[in-house]
Records
---
Amino acid sequence: MQAEERKAIARLAHEAINSKNVALLAGQPGFWQTRQIFPLLFGAYPDLSSTVEQQTVDGEWVTTRITLRGTHRGEFMGVAPTGKSFEIMQISLDQVAGGKVVEHFGVSDWFRALVAFGVVAAPAAVSARAEP
């Protein structure tokens, strides 16, 4: 399987977000948890969108960096809707074998969203200067 084919298969999750169609993930065993969480995300963020920023391939593994954007319109993680918008980064690592995602790992910067919603305070600025 060519690298571009692997990338396209790994992008199915992002296509499911943009089309609000979890059925796109059917037959992809690595997305079993994703199929459960996406309906919750769509309820909380009905305008949720995903932009693929970067993808790399190493053998069977595809790494994808995306930007998620949306507006907090429904309860999520115990937080009542705020009506505020957010933009966060998400990194996925997918093993694509036999034309399917067989393993999926994803990390999203939900802390940044909680700051945008006013649920937690933003951390103090960090200096880029090294200590002497």
---
Amino acid sequence: MFKKAPFLTIVLLLPSCLSAAASASVPKVVVVNIQEIGQESKKFASVRKRIETEIHKRGTEIESLKSQFTQILEKVQQGGKDMKPAALEEKQAQLASLKGQIEVKQQGLQAYAEREMRMAEETLIKEIQVVCEKMNYDIVIPGALYTKPQFNVTAQVMAEMDKGVSAAKDEPKKDAPKAKL
């Protein structure tokens, strides 16, 4: 009987040791939707606004050049036969110049947008990494085709990132008089 007691003790303790060892080595795997954080985070609202403003400004410049190009082209098409050769050549030179300016500005706009978006994404990823390290996650998957809700921590990560960010625009004024009941 003495020989059976240690064996039972070992057998009974073994499953609990195995489960403790297994749970200690199981990494905390979560999914974060980077795109959602980039679009909805208060912390990155100023970055989005700055990029959108510059893109709009440059786009407006391009549209102005296109408008000039169209006006000159219409003049050439409508009255080109009646124009003197020197005047026609001048209009064609203007068209060529405007076309070149438009192409350069479009390329510049595209390069700007790509560069700024890449830099914003890199910054966003670093911020997400810092937050996920604080939250003790071992593996963070940046988006997935499908995930169970308990593994998607996008909202928690965004809330942690946005802590301390001024939300004055989103909150109602506290100084407003309250209605008496």
